[in-house]
C-alpha cells in the first residue's frame, strides 16, 4: 500500500511528501523543517543546500534523541512512583487485615 503524499514546498524545493496525520499536520511539520533549514542557512557565510539539509536532519535527530531520553527518564520516574504506591497499598492492606 502506497502512502498518500502531498505536493508541498520544503525549504524552497517542491516535493511529494508523505502525509503525516493529515494535510494540516504535514504542513506544520514542513514549516518546522523549513524554519530550521532557514536558521542554519542564515548562520552560514556560504551556500551549501545539501549540507544545510543534512544539518537540518541531524538537528531534528538530536532533538528526537533528547526527547526519547527524557521520555525514558519520565518512564523510570513513573515506575518508581508506582512501586512506592504499590508498597504503600500493601502496607495499608496488611494493617487493615492484621489481627487486633
What does this structure look like?
With 100 residues, the protein is of the alpha+beta class. It is built from two helices and two strands; from the N terminus they run ββαα. A two-stranded antiparallel sheet has the order 1-2. A hairpin with a 2-residue loop joins strand 1 and strand 2. The protein is elongated. The model has no long low-confidence stretch (mean pLDDT 94).
Topology:
Elements: E1 5-10, E2 13-18, H1 23-42, H2 49-97
Antiparallel strand pairs: 1-2
Using brief descriptors, characterize the structure shown.
alpha+beta; 100 residues
Give the strand tally. Answer: 2
Strand content: 5-15%
Poorly predicted residue ranges: none
Mean pLDDT: 94
- Multimeric state: single chain
Q: Let me know the largest β-sheet.
A: 2 strands, antiparallel
In DSSP terms, counting alpha (H) and pi (I) runs of 4 or more, how many helices?
2
Sheet with most strands: strand arrangement? 1-2
Sketch the topology as an H/E string, one letter per element. EEHH
Distance between the termini: 67 Å
Radius of gyration: 24 Å
Shape: elongated
Give the helix/strand class. alpha+beta
Summarize the structure.
This protein is of the alpha+beta class and 100 residues long.
Amino acid at each position: 500500500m502506497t502512502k498518500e503524499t502531498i505536493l508541498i514546498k520544503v525549504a524552497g524545493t517542491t516535493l511529494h511528501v508523505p502525509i503525516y496525520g493529515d494535510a494540516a499536520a504535514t504542513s506544520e511539520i514542513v514549516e518546522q523543517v523549513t524554519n530550521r533549514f532557514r536558521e542554519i542557512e542564515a548562520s552560514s557565510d556560504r551556500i551549501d543546500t545539501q549540507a544545510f539539509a543534512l544539518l537540518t536532519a541531524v538537528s531534528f535527530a538530536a532533538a528526537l534523541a533528547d526527547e526519547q531520553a527524557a521520555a525514558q527518564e519520565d518512564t523510570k520516574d513513573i515506575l518508581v512512583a508506582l512501586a512506592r504506591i504499590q508498597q504503600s497499598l500493601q502496607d495499608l492492606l496488611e494493617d487493615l487485615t492484621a489481627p487486633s
